[in-house]
Amino acid sequence: MTLKINIRKQLPNFALDVALDCKPGKLTAIVGPSGAGKSTLVRIIAGLEKPDVGTISLGESSWVNTATNSFAKPQQRGLGLVFQEYTLFPHLTVRENVAFAAKDKKYIHGLLEKFGISHIAESKPANISGGERQRAAFCQALAREPVLLLLDEPFSALDIVTREGLRKKLRELKSGLNIPIIHVTHDLEEAYYLADSIFALENGQESPLWLERQQKRFSPELQVKPHLSLVGNM
């Protein structure tokens, strides 16, 4: 099912105005400078804020329609969320954290194995590394069997080795999940590595020119990505 976003929200310094389609099995990277409106967009998609005007739908399910004053709460949207901050319950073990979110308990062990953390299943978050906590957070998000995976800077607090490992794992998994994936990042190189399409946001607006300016800073091999759709150029 395709996620369709068409919203507008007035912010203190500009209006956030976004029209974007995200297809199942594909990762859409949202990039842009700090203060461009990326975090607000994430909160609107997640149901943590409301747009002033617009619609959000996933397939036949309407999440937001300001014309009819309809608004699905976060828990009604069936999202999997992974943020920069670790979202695990400190009093639960890794296994219990994943089980808490799981629709079907039989998938828990497979997820832990897939992310290489089955050996710490009985450990609590305080006793494992930051990278292991973030792997557990991915397991927790996927255990929900989400209809959309929403990632907001999930790798930015990790060391480079752990970050590269998790990027590789996400790239391996994304098409098999068959759900839309939205990945917000400040790291354009990361976006190029992971994304099937890139949406650049500057001052609340789609900005292909910002993306073109940033591309010039990269080496030629990063600029040539045959699989990549630059949303701003479509």
List the helices and strands and how they pair.
Layout: E1 3-10, E2 15-22, E3 27-31, H1 38-46, E4 53-58, E5 61-65, E6 70-71, H2 74-77, E7 79-83, H3 94-101, H4 108-114, H5 130-143, E8 148-152, H6 160-177, E9 181-184, H7 188-194, E10 197-202, E11 205-206, H8 208-215, H9 220-223, E12 229-230
Parallel strand pairs: 3-9, 3-10, 7-8, 8-9, 10-12
Antiparallel strand pairs: 1-2, 1-4, 4-5, 5-6, 10-11
Helix pairs in contact: 3-5
Q: What can you tell me about this protein's structure?
A:
The protein is α/β, with parallel strands linked by helices and 234 residues long. It is 34% helix and 25% strand. It has a domain at 1-73 and 187-234: Rossmann fold (3-Layer(aba) Sandwich), CATH 3.40.50. The strands form 2 sheets. Strands 3, 7, 8, 9, 10, 11 and 12 form a 7-stranded mixed beta sheet that branches. It has a 5-stranded antiparallel beta sheet with strand order 2-1-4-5-6, with helices on one face.
Task: Kindly list the characteristics that best describe this protein.
single chain; 234 residues; alpha/beta; Rossmann fold; seven-stranded mixed sheet; five-stranded antiparallel sheet; 12 strands; 25% strand
Radius of gyration, rounded?
18 Å
Mean pLDDT: 89
Would you report the number of β strands? 12
Query: Structural class, from helix and strand content?
Result: alpha/beta
H-E order: EEEHEEEHEHHHEHEHEEHHE
What is the helical fraction, as a range of percent? 25-40%
The oligomerization state is single chain
CATH architecture of the domain at 1-73 and 187-234: 3-Layer(aba) Sandwich
| Sheet with the most strands, sense and barrel status | 7 strands, mixed
- What would you call the shape? globular
CATH topology name of the domain at 1-73 and 187-234, in short, is Rossmann fold
CATH class of the domain at 1-73 and 187-234, anyone? Alpha Beta
